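Dear colleague,

Thank you for sharing your sequence with our group. We've completed the structure prediction you requested, and as agreed, I am returning the results in plain text so they can be pasted directly into your records. Please verify that the sequence below matches your submission; if there's any discrepancy, let me know and we will rerun it promptly.
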Amino acid sequence: MRLSGRPAVALFTGVVGAALFSTPTASAQESKSAAIARQLVHTLDAAKLDSFAAPDPATPGAFVAALYIPGTQLLVVSAKYAAPPLLVDRITAKDYRAVYVDLQSASVRGSKVFVQDQGADGLASKPSGDQPADAWDEGDKSTIFDGDWKKAKIAEADYTKTYSDADGRYARMLATLLEQAKKAKAGS
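Please find the predicted structure tokens below.
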């Protein structure tokens, strides 16, 4: 049986349209970190906190800390620290900003990951509107998620994988902070 005329054109158009819209690209990836970022921001707002820190339960001697600038950005750092008891004491004293500063300035070399979440809404593979691009720094490598993989001199597939990996790791960092922030709120 051979289709011709309008039914064939409609079928062809539907199949091509479905293929085009189902192909993931760097500009249309769903963020794993968006919902968790919104929850963390809501929790920080409710507690009237502009920073928070917690030990990383997955990595002994490592910590995660966030500096929150309401309505603007969420700056998150994860790193190992040479004197973990010092940071544990600061977290116990609720001196979260000092933990953030220590992780930014005195972390164990090669262990630091720093995320600049513009808009405090999770990592985006490409900024929307006139918002600045999110950034991911790990070791000596910086990645700006501006959607322009050609400018970065990498293939689109590599850009997409880098974004996906960073977004997943960022979601886990935020989940650690959110879980501890909820526990701290319940304990106060």
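Summary note from our side: The chain is about 45% helix and 20% strand.

Kind regards,
the structure core
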